[in-house]
């Protein structure tokens, strides 16, 4: 089964740092064990005849299945197949893992789909991306992105040597490739990724050619250090069921003179070309589509937990609680509707690819930054102090005070033990380190939300809205003048 193959493949000499130590065997470490078990089961869905059509597709009529994030959509059915796969994997982990590789893989699929156009921009690109796309697809490689430069001093830029020397840049060109130095901040899933898709979010000037690149970097590259944040994983399934299985881990990457072979340098040295690749509409539409499809599963999950909490403590009949529960449903429907709209209004682009309509996806990504934090707030408002009245362990149900436990923890509609389990699950959403990380993730994963909204305004065809206003003003002025003449 490919889940096992995936786990074994991670013992490849990568340098993963956690708590000041190098982690030598990821699947034996408590910080990664639970998450890797989740990933193993997701990979296995591609081998299971019951599930493989939900997660994957047959490559060119071959027996083998690949994940549908590799499927280039030329028809609505193929686009729907991609959507189903994103939804399926997300639902399998209750929306609690957002970077299941399908986002980063979609960039590769998009660049591959647009290879002829991109080859005109950078001769040789088509051959490079085709070889890489086939390798990743046929070997189930796990990918993640690392785009943001380290948060050192945001008021300063690349003209400041202190910044330029720490942001990822090329220090040497050789016949084998380029040597890069610097750091990238936050790569979710970094410890168990095979390759990183690396580029900068900055709008670079031509003068900054050393910083202008789009790279594929193997996780076991010599000189690459994967520096993990504190682990939020728990080994107590009963107490923290989400933290036990879904800590997808985030890491900073240090590149201590890492050689990137030319076949993994997708673009380098020309700021405009790099921008054309990293902002390419085909790749962005396919990748951002994954972001919003998976979000539905997450909103459905927190809504389900909130409904259950409201019923368990007998508050679902109160009007203000119903108003809040209704608000959660409007969140789900809003994102679902935007997904449907983006797919229904998908257009065939210059490369013949059917890409989802990006304006709806941008809207979903932007409003989504406010939805999940609000959903967490609603869960807190509904559960009140119930989250902190839960006992430290459900073991107490089987000990000396078992009778008292069953009496005093009883809920309106559920037994004491079930109620305690429910509130532990809910606490993992609203109060655990993993829960806080998810709230932060939804605020920021799509970039700075302030600039996200501003970009939506800047990119919009504003005249389509202002022209009717000026027309109305002109016509009313004309009518006013005629009225005065008649008088
Ligand atoms: C949990 C988590 C996981 C993530 N995973 C990934 C990942 O896998 N891959 C990846 O590439 N990225 C990932 N990100 C990074 C994410 O893309 C960034 O956090 C996001 O782009 C915001 O950038 P920043 O965190 O550097 O914030 P900053 O840009 O430093 O912003 C901090 C504050 O300063 C303000 N600010 C800063 N600069 C400006 C400016 N020039 N103009 C106006 N306001 C400014 C912002 O509005 C914000 O309020 C992840 C983030 C989180 C929280």
TrEMBL record:
Keyword annotations of the record: FAD, Flavoprotein, Oxidoreductase
Record domain HpaB/PvcC/4-BUDH N-terminal: where: 3-267
Span of domain HpaB/PvcC/4-BUDH C-terminal: 283-467
A Pfam family reported for this protein in Swiss-Prot or TrEMBL: HpaB
Gene3D superfamilies: 4-hydroxybutyryl-coa dehydratase, domain 1, Butyryl-CoA Dehydrogenase, subunit A, domain 2, Butyryl-CoA Dehydrogenase, subunit A, domain 3
Cited PANTHER family: 4-HYDROXYPHENYLACETATE 3-MONOOXYGENASE-RELATED (PTHR36117:SF3)
Name by which UniProt lists this protein: 4-hydroxyphenylacetate 3-hydroxylase family protein
């Amino acid at each position: 089964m490919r889940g096992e193959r995936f786990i074994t493949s991670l013992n490849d000499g990568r340098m993963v740092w956690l708590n000041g130590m190098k982690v030598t065997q990821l699947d034996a470490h408590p910080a990664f064990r639970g998450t890797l078990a989740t990933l193993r089961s997701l990979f296995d869905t591609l081998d299971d005849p019951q599930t493989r059509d939900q997660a994957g597709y047959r490559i060119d009529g071959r027996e083998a299945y690949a994940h549908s994030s590799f499927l280039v959509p030329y028809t609505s059915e193929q686009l729907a197949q991609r959507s189903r796969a994103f939804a399926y994997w997300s639902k399998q982990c209750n929306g609690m893992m957002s970077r299941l590789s399908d986002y980063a893989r979609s960039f590769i699929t998009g660049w591959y789909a647009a290879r002829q156009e991109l080859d005109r921009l950078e001769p040789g690109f088509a051959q490079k991306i085709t070889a890489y796309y086939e390798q990743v697809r046929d070997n189930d490689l796990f990918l993640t992105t690392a785009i943001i430069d380290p948060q050192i001093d945001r008021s300063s830029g690349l003209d400041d040597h202190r910044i330029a020397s720490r942001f990822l840049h090329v220090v040497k060109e050789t016949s084998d490739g380029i040597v890069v130095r610097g750091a990238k901040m936050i790569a979710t899933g970094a410890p168990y990724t095979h390759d990183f898709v690396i580029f900068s979010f900055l709008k670079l000037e031509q003068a900054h050619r050393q910083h202008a690149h789009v790279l594929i970097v193997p996780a076991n590259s010599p000189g690459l250090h994967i520096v993990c944040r504190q682990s939020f994983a728990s080994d107590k399934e009963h107490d923290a069921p989400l933290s036990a299985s879904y800590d997808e881990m985030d890491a900073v990457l240090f590149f201590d003179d890492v050689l990137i072979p030319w076949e993994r340098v997708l673009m380098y040295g020309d700021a405009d070309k790099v921008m054309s690749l990293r902002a390419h509409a085909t790749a962005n539409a396919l990748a951002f589509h994954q972001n919003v499809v998976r979000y539905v599963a997450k909103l459905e999950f927190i809504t389900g937990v909130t409904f259950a909490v409201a019923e368990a403590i007998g508050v679902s009949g109160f009007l203000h609680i119903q108003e809040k529960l209704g608000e959660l449903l409007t969140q789900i429907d809003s994102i679902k509707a935007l997904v449907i709209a983006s797919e229904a209004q998908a257009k065939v682009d210059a490369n013949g690819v059917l890409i989802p309509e990006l304006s709806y996806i941008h809207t979903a990504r932007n409003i989504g930054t406010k939805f999940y934090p609000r959903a967490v707030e609603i869960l807190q408002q509904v559960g009140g102090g119930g989250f902190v009245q839960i006992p430290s362990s459900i073991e107490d149900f089987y000990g000396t005070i078992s009778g008292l436990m069953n009496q005093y923890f009883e809920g309106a509609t559920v037994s004491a033990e079930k109620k305690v389990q429910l509130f532990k699950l809910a606490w993992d959403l609203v109060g655990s380190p993993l829960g806080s990380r998810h709230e932060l993730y939804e605020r920021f994963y799509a970039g700075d939300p302030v600039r996200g909204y501003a970009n939506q305004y800047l990119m919009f065809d504003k005249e389509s809205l202002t022209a009717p206003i000026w027309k109305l003003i002109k016509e009313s002025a004309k009518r006013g003048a005629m009225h005065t003449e008649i008088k």
